[in-house]
Design brief:
It is found in: Plastid, Chloroplast thylakoid membrane. By secondary structure, the protein is mainly α.
Length: about 160
């Protein structure tokens, strides 16, 4: 049996093997042409449209980022402007309130001075009237004293 296996192995090694891994015959150029044709067809049908779509996508993303950046910049500028306007409005409102308080205080002061002046005038008039009434009362009293003294004199002398 060993002899049979050895003879079989010798027959196998003596026969010529065709179609190996690196066989250089007419199929090699045909395979190269098929590979080139497949590459060209795939390039035309698949890779160029895919590349175009990817380029459009990149352009869209770049445009979107640019637009978003511009919108953000504009929003920041508007925010700053509105904050400045708000601060200015608050300052104006505080100035208006301060002026209104000063005006109110001036009005109150003038009203107090006017009331004080009126009160002083009233006091002066009242004092003058009281002095006039006092003088009249004293004159009446003097008249009555004269009348009474005359009556007392008449009664004392006439009796």
């Amino acid at each position: 049996m060993n002899n049979f296996l050895i003879s079989l192995a010798l027959q196998e090694s003596s026969t010529e093997v065709q179609g190996g891994l690196f066989d250089f015959n007419a199929t090699l150029p045909l395979m190269a042409l098929q590979f080139l044709a497949l590459t060209i067809i795939l390039n035309l049908i698949y890779y160029k449209p895919l590349g175009k779509i990817l380029d459009e996508r990149d352009e869209y993303i770049a445009n979107s980022l640019t637009a978003a950046s511009a919108a953000l910049s504009k929003a920041n500028d508007l925010t700053k402007r509105y904050e400045q306007d708000l601060a200015e409005s608050r300052k104006k409102a505080q100035d208006i309130i301060k002026n209104a308080q000063q005006d109110a205080q001036n009005i109150v002061s003038s009203k107090i001075k006017e009331a004080q002046k009126d009160a002083d005038q009233l006091m002066s008039n009242t004092y003058d009237q009281l002095n006039i009434q006092k003088e009249q009362a004293l004159q009446n009293l003097e008249k009555q004293v004269d009348i009474l003294s005359n009556q007392i004199q008449i009664k004392l002398l006439g009796n």
